[in-house]
Amino acid sequence: MPEEAFKVHGFTSEFLRSKETFDKVADEFLEFIQNKKIIIHNASFDLGFLNHELKLIRKNEVKRDNIIDSLEVARNKFPGSSNSLDALCRRFSIDLSRRKKHNALLDCELLREVYINLIDAKEPKLIFSNENVTTNLKNKNIDNKDYCKIVIKPTEEELKLHKEFLKKELKKNYY
Length: 175
Hints:
Elements lengths: L2 H7 L3 H5 L4 H12 L4 E3 L2 H14 L10 E3 H8 L7 H7 L12 H15 L8 E3 L3 H7 L8 E3 L5 H19 L1
Parallel strand pairs: 1-2, 3-4
Helix pairs in contact: 5-7
């Protein structure tokens, strides 16, 4: 295992010796993805490697029309911003604490959360706090102020007026 690769994913040669090679699992993989849309972050990078390996074992390449590239979606939604998977996780308040090395399974979990947020299929996580907004953003690793709301507590006078209003409305509507 080259040292550079080990630094990225942490897999040793000893660990990989007991794993099946791609040519042994390729058919199962291709069957699994058949007729499905696949979400990949920076698809051209991953597809280059994947299709090269498929070509080496004389299998059909994965077609681009079956791919949703979340990097392209992010670039269209946030032009000019950093749209790496880590940056998008921070933007959407997705926990990155488990991400020590590049790990495909963890990256899939993170990408699932990112994609749900990219296509607005999920309500954003709101952070309610009376702390200074900037401090709150910094402490929560959030780079989008739209996701942080300050709680404004009513004054004693406002609470008193509210109670009087409710009493008046209840009497008017129920007596």
